């Protein structure tokens, strides 16, 4: 069963919290979810081990590798799951109570890709409408090498509207073009759990991500060691790279 906009699920979640749902603007014929999940509707017999990143709980499936992206302040700003040569980048955002944002986000992504020389078109996927095609990206610069040139890459954008959240996934690599190669990453996306929280947030603001305690301790040790070494050598410390726990 495809995961469309779970209108009925959103209403049910609000009723359970004693909050009357806002007026419904669109009708959907999907009543139950097979994932991705809100924290309130994960099946009791799910049995999937997950890495807790705060707003996202990501499945730890055999053969997949999880890497988190940190900014200069060492805050988690993104998560990527790799399977072979393919990757799934995940982000979750705040959304309105009564209406999803995936319809608008799809249109914006398609316009942005076209303006940069890529091309994305809407197709029906296992989670409802998605975008498939090419995007133009600039690879990271190599030390001492020439400036990198933009390249065109195959990509798929998946999106799911949940209760006050929106989950976006971008698949790249062979899985963006081959259904067989995409099967594992689609299963990963299907098993993601979103933890929205109760705090008010502006629509489209990214939900906060955090490192698991063990990874946070590892990063703190790396930072401390780097600062000590820099102090002994009389130079500024270089922030370490983000840890990449293997799932």
Automatic annotation (TrEMBL):
Positions with biased composition (Basic and acidic residues): 10-31
Biased composition (Pro residues): 237-247
Coiled coil regions in record: none
Positions of the UniProt region annotated as Disordered: 1-51, 205-247
Low complexity: bias regions: 212-236
Protein name (record): DUF3710 domain-containing protein
Organism the protein comes from: Geodermatophilus aquaeductus
């Amino acid at each position: 069963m495809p995961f469309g906009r779970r209108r009925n699920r959103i209403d049910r979640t609000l009723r359970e919290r004693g909050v009357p749902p806002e007026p419904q603007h669109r009708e959907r014929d999907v009543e139950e979810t097979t994932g991705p999940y809100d924290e309130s509707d994960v099946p009791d017999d799910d049995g999937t081990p997950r890495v807790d990143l705060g707003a996202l709980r990501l499945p730890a499936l055999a053969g997949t590798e999880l890497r988190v992206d940190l900014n200069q302040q060492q805050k988690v700003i993104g998560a990527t799951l790799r399977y072979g040569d393919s990757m799934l980048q995940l982000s979750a955002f705040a959304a309105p109570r009564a209406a999803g944002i995936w319809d608008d986000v799809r249109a914006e992504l398609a316009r942005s890709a076209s303006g940069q020389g890529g091309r994305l078109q809407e197709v029906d996927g296992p989670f409802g409408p998605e975008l498939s095609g090419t995007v133009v990206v600039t690879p990271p610069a190599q030390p001492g090498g020439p400036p990198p040139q933009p390249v065109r890459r195959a990509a798929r954008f998946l999106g799911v509207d949940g209760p006050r959240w929106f989950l976006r996934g971008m698949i790249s690599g062979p899985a963006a073009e081959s259904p067989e190669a995409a099967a594992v990453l689609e299963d990963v996306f299907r098993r993601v759990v979103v933890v929205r929280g109760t705090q008010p947030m502006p629509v489209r603001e990214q939900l906060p991500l955090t490192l698991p305690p063990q990874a946070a301790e590892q990063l703190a040790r790396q930072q401390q060691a780097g600062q000590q070494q820099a102090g002994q050598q009389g130079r500024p410390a270089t922030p370490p790279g983000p840890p990449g726990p293997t799932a």
